[in-house]
Design goal:
Elements: E1 11-15, H1 22-30, E2 37-39, E3 42-44, E4 58-60, H2 63-71, E5 75-81, E6 84-89, H3 90-98, E7 102-106, H4 109-118, E8 123-128, H5 132-142, H6 147-161, E9 169-172, H7 176-196
Parallel strand pairs: 1-7, 1-8, 2-7, 3-4, 8-9
Antiparallel strand pairs: 3-6, 5-6
The structure holds adenosine-5'-diphosphate (ADP) and guanosine-5'-monophosphate.
The site of guanosine-5'-monophosphate has 15 residues, from strand 5, strand 6 and helix 4.
Length: 197
Amino acid sequence: MRTTLMKKGLLIILSGPSGVGKGTVRLKLMTRPELNLFYSVSMTTRKIRPGEKEGREYYYVSRQEFLKQVEEGNLLEWNEFVGNFYGTPLDKVNQKREEGYNVLLEIDVNGAMKVMEKCPDAVSIFLKAPSFEALEKRIRGRSTETEEVIRERLGKAKSEYGLAYKYKYSVVNDSVERAADEIASIIKKESKQANLI
Ligand code: ADP
Ligand code: 5GP
């Protein structure tokens, strides 16, 4: 429970095309306790990848279960991305912000647009690759998708780049350490400003 002295935490959106490095940069940010972050684990109908764990990367559910959650209004936002559903559980976001945590969403561009509309105070960050070639290399290097899905994801990335201007911040993921440092500075600056209000 939040005490009267504790401020509500920020809502931070980390977004950008698939393969740009959102997950990698997020893991780096989560190693910094001073940022007071809580990572919002999404729900998805995508199949679990080798090395992933239920409740850590995602909550893996059937399409039927996902649509039930949508119907019951339990998701802050949701989207269909290259054949699978992904969504942000609403309760946890509210609860953790009330507890004073800065809640971090790692979501696709379409979902980010929806959150920005619903929560205009969200701190939105678009993560970019240094070049389109670098993005392609990263998504292929990850070796988690079929050729068809890789092509679909890369095709989507082009239109997603066109929406970068809608975000409050753009950060180039040239090196994971540097990008995480830049995002950490943004979070510290935004926390300070929020506490002045
Ligand atoms: P996303 O979560 O945006 O889909 P990932 O975090 O899974 O992307 O990263 C995609 C691939 O790119 C991974 O293999 C990851 O190790 C690699 N990667 C991430 N950031 C960098 C970087 N700054 N330089 C080189 N490779 C990176
Ligand atoms: P992946 O299948 O690579 O884990 O994720 C595919 C895309 O879905 C990524 O861009 C990822 O950020 C996004 N994503 C993950 N969780 C959510 C969510 O809850 N909502 C939305 N809209 N996108 C999400």
